[in-house]
């Protein structure tokens, strides 16, 4: 187990390091933040003074070493817009994002997994075709299109719900549904495919032939073995709790991390963008680690194999 954890920790560190490096280089090559923030009409002297004040006049290599060093000291930089610490700006937006993504995750799990299992157990039935039709539609429709359709119907035409903002719990309904439907569709498709593959295995037919009740065959044999690919998707959804709402937050004017990210990218607010990407990569790494642990709990053979392999 120690070697297993050490290997996963090293892989997590390398992943975060690569993300940080890639984000740093791309942001530096995408335009001069000083020119964008100061404006096209700013005097050259003012632009140069801004670049000097924020260390942008140094070489990219010097900036990179300084940034990596500051990460290890807990300093993630300051916003070029208002001078506040980037970590504080991001931290104050996290609760708003989680207020959308956690209920959306519950919606995905509550709709997608039962729908996928039911469709697999009633393969080629009318319900199965209907579930898959809805799943394909939910999977293929972009979230911003779905969000705008929901606003058009429930906010503009019916007037039941607000179209944006964060004043009350009613403002969260449409963005949560927008986030939840697509994920539920993905879970339904993967769960159905996994269940169908397991239901076709010889040990399932053997258990049925021995007279084991079908409900017990499904709950005790089929569902646990079909859970492994489904857990992978759930892990990805957990990892995207912070980054998964970028488009939806913009559509519904929700003041979360995703909307902050969009504004920071447009303004070339380097420290804020880097801080968000660091948070997202850390969240994905933690989610992948939890998925690895879940694999071992679901099937001890995988845990034993992982320990032996590493």
List the helices and strands and how they pair.
Elements: H1 2-29, H2 33-38, H3 44-53, H4 60-72, H5 86-91, H6 94-121, H7 126-140, H8 143-157, H9 173-199, H10 202-209, H11 214-239, H12 246-251, H13 257-267, H14 270-298, H15 300-309
Transmembrane segments: 98-121, 133-160, 172-190, 226-251, 271-295
Subcellular location: Cell membrane
Family: Belongs to the binding-protein-dependent transport system permease family.
Task: Provide a descriptive summary of the structure in words.
It is a multi-pass membrane protein. The chain crosses the membrane at residues 98-121, 133-160, 172-190, 226-251, 271-295. It holds the Pfam family BPD_transp_1_N. It is found in: Cell membrane. The protein has 310 residues and is an all-alpha fold. It folds into two domains: 2-91, no CATH class; 94-255, MetI-like (MetI-like fold, Orthogonal Bundle). Helices cover 77% and strands 0% of the residues. Residues 304-310 have low confidence and may be disordered.
């Amino acid at each position: 187990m120690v070697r297993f954890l050490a290997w996963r920790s090293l892989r997590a560190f390398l992943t975060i390091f690569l993300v940080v490096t890639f984000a740093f280089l791309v942001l530096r090559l995408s335009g001069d933040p000083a020119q964008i923030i100061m404006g096209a009409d700013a005097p050259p002297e003012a632009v140069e003074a801004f670049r000097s004040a924020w260390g942008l006049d140094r070489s990219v290599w010097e900036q990179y070493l300084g940034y990596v060093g500051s990460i290890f000291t807990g300093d993630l930089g300051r916003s070029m817009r208002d001078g506040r610490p980037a970590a504080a700006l991001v931290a104050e937006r996290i609760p708003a994002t989680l207020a959308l993504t956690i209920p959306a995750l519950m919606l995905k799990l509550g709709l997608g997994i039962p729908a996928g299992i039911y469709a697999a157990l009633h393969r080629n039935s009318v319900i199965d075709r209907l579930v898959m039709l809805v799943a394909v539609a939910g999977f293929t429709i972009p979230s911003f299109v779905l969000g705008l359709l929901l606003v058009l119907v429930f906010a503009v035409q019916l007037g039941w719900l607000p179209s944006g903002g964060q004043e009350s719990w009613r403002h969260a309904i449409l963005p949560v549904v927008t986030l939840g439907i697509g994920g539920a569709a993905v879970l339904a498709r993967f769960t159905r495919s996994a269940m169908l593959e397991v239901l076709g295995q010889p040990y399932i037919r053997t258990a049925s032939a021995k007279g084991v009740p079908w409900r017990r065959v499904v709950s005790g044999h089929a569902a646990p073995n079909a859970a492994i690919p489904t857990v992978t998707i759930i892990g990805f959804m957990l990892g995207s709790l912070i980054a998964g709402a970028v488009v939806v937050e913009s559509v519904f004017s929700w003041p979360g991390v995703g909307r902050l990210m969009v504004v920071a990218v447009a303004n070339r607010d380097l420290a804020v963008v880097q801080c968000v990407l660091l948070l997202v990569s850390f969240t994905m790494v933690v989610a992948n680690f939890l998925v690895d642990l879940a694999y071992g709990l679901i099937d001890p053979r995988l845990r034993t194999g992982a320990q032996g392999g590493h």
